[in-house]
Design goal:
By secondary structure, the chain is α/β, with parallel strands linked by helices. It has two domains: 2-9 and 24-320, Purple Acid Phosphatase, chain A, domain 2 (4-Layer Sandwich); 333-531, 5'-nucleotidase,  domain 2. The chain is built from 16 helices and 27 strands. Helix 8 (223-232) links the parallel strand 10 (214-220) and strand 11. Helix 2 (60-76) runs antiparallel to helix 9 (313-331), helix 11 (354-367) crosses helix 16 and helix 12 (393-399) crosses helix 16.
Length: 532
């Protein structure tokens, strides 16, 4: 694996005067998900009217402007600063669909990041997709728990650890990527995942042996896992994380304080920081160490990138130029709806949600003439909500950006139940495998052991509901990603019979379904999923 040594921001706080303490400002984002253009309150692409009202957030030009403003100000004040990305730049808008990472490279270089962690969605187009990023950027892309020695495409492309020289001090960066990435993306058989905690321990030890006493973990494993890292990996001073889209801070809806202080079995508390997603916030964590390399202070807050932040004009112009080829598709109105449709991950990964019900219904409606009676959709495949009013194809593609196609197959009732158990197997992590359904009802008990959380599974026959028959063979519709075993749905691949994986694009299916609903359409829940 690569070991990067990069000098950056070499500014002494007081030239010629010894300093007992060392302070580092960490500016960071995570899970940007190709939100190159500003987003609305539903985390999807903001339209011109909403933007004109000053109700948009983020966008790469606004992210760039705020990072430049803070970095320039901090440097002018003699402070030390680095800029980090905790992964998942890829996937989530028509920019990724169109440019496949080349836009990411251009804008990240323009902003001037110091390091980035590999996110699971960097593998959505296989190792080749990640290589576009690693070859294109001028800073290290890192993940310590990847063995790439068997990959001709990625060998020597990803750093195992990174060392940044900042203000006369060496800052070590270790990293880890979510272990279930082979189930949530497409890294391929030649990308080997090693245990994340053991990998972090080894990398921290290596940096410590090299005399580096200030170590930051830049991870893409989720907030809960980051807390476990802080508890179990000695020698980490702070964690900058991504993957779970967790909002931290003192604002309404935050999952915890920014930073969250975690007390390990031995040593000082470890701050964990993450900054939601989609470029809506810029994290700003300030860390101070004493002259013996012990962390003495960690403080900060995420900064909301609202209309008060003026976008970088040059980057905004480039965004407008690059958006021209996709504007016609993006702006095509496909439907009008009377009420917003909730597709938030906080809803769709733990319970029946409006978007999950709508999309599952659309899938089943499309193939009901083929004898299919059950639809199963992973909640993680739903990436945004849709506001009331006109719905554009851009809105639909923001919800369903993965270019998945419909897959139909046959499955025994017992295997349908097994699939639902997989969907609930990581409920406590709000994992994307949670099953949204149509033609089915089921109950999930989050307190039960994984594998025994599903009960009262019912199927619809006409207008009536009855218990699922474990021995009966049912027609099922899902998407080609899940049919291939994605999100842990191996049962679809191994037990699916008479499969056809090349149906229409799921986004087109949803757009056509919405168009048929009429302008008075409002989403509703009908109790198809019960959470105990």
């Amino acid at each position: 694996m690569k070991r990067w040594l990069l000098a950056t921001c070499c500014v002494m706080t007081c030239a010629g005067v010894a300093q007992a303490d060392y302070t580092l400002h960490v500016l960071h984002i995570n899970d940007f998900h190709s939100r190159i253009e500003p987003i609305n309150g539903f985390d999807s692409t903001c339209d011109a009217e909403t933007d004109a009202k000053g109700e948009c957030f983020g966008g790469v030009a606004r992210v760039a402007a705020k990072i430049r403003e803070l970095r320039d100000q901090l440097k002018a004040d003699g402070q030390n600063v680095i800029v980090l990305d905790a992964g998942d730049q890829y996937q989530g808008s028509l920019f990724y669909t169109t440019y496949k990472g080349k836009d990411t490279v251009e804008f990240m270089r323009a902003i001037g990041f110091d390091a980035m962690a590999v996110g699971n969605h960097e593998f959505d187009d296989g190792p080749e997709g990640l290589r576009i990023l690693t070859e294109g950027v001028d800073f290290p892309v890192t993940s310590g728990n990847l063995d790439l020695s068997q990959s001709d495409i990625l060998r020597d492309q990803v750093a195992g650890t990174v060392t940044l020289e900042v203000g006369g001090e060496k800052i070590g960066i270790v990293s880890a990527l979510a272990m279930d990435t082979p189930e949530t993306a497409s890294p391929g058989d030649q990308v080997i995942f090693t245990d994340d905690i053991e990998s972090l321990k080894g990398d921290v030890s290596e940096l410590t042996d090299a005399g580096i006493s200030k170590i930051i973990a830049l991870t893409h494993s989720g907030y809960r896992r980051d807390i476990e890292f802080a508890e179990q990996v000695p020698g980490i001073d702070a964690i900058i994380g991504g993957h779970s889209h967790t909002l931290l801070g003192d604002m309404e809806g935050a999952a915890g304080p920014y930073p969250t202080m975690v007390q390990p079995a031995e040593g000082a508390g470890v701050p964990v920081a993450t900054a939601y997603a989609y470029g809506k916030y810029l994290g700003h964590l300030t860390l101070s160490w004493d002259d013996e390399g012990t962390l003495t202070k960690a403080e900060g807050q995420p900064i909301l990138l609202d209309a008060s932040v003026q976008p970088d004009a040059q980057i905004a112009a480039r965004v407008a130029e690059m958006s021209a080829p996709i504007d016609e598709l993006k702006q095509r109105v496909v439907a009008t709806i009377a009420a917003p449709i909730d597709g938030a991950r906080e809803s769709c990964r733990v319970r029946e949600c409006e978007m999950g019900t709508l999309v599952a219904d659309a899938m089943l409606d499309r193939v009901k003439g083929q004898g299919v009676t059950i639809a199963i959709l992973n909640g993680g495949g739903l990436r945004a909500s849709i506001p009331a009013g006109q719905v554009t194809m851009g809105d639909v593609l923001t919800v369903l950006p993965f270019q998945n196609t419909l897959s139909t197959f046959e499955l025994k009732g017992s295997d349908v139940i097994a699939a639902l158990e997989n969907g609930a197997s990581q409920y406590e992590n709000a994992a994307g495998r949670f099953a949204q359904v149509a033609g089915l009802k089921y109950t999930v008990d989050p307190a039960a052991p994984a594998g025994k959380r599903i009960s009262d599974v019912q199927v619809r026959k006409g207008t009536e509901w009855g218990p699922i028959d474990p021995a009966h063979v049912y027609g099922v519709v899902s998407n080609n990603y899940m049919r291939g075993g994605g999100d842990g749905y191996d049962i679809f691949e191994t037990a699916g019979m008479n499969a056809y994986d090349f149906g229409p694009d799921l986004a087109d299916v949803l757009a056509e379904h919405l168009a048929r609903q009429g302008t008075e359409f409002a989403p509703k829940l009908d109790g198809r999923i019960t959470v105990k």
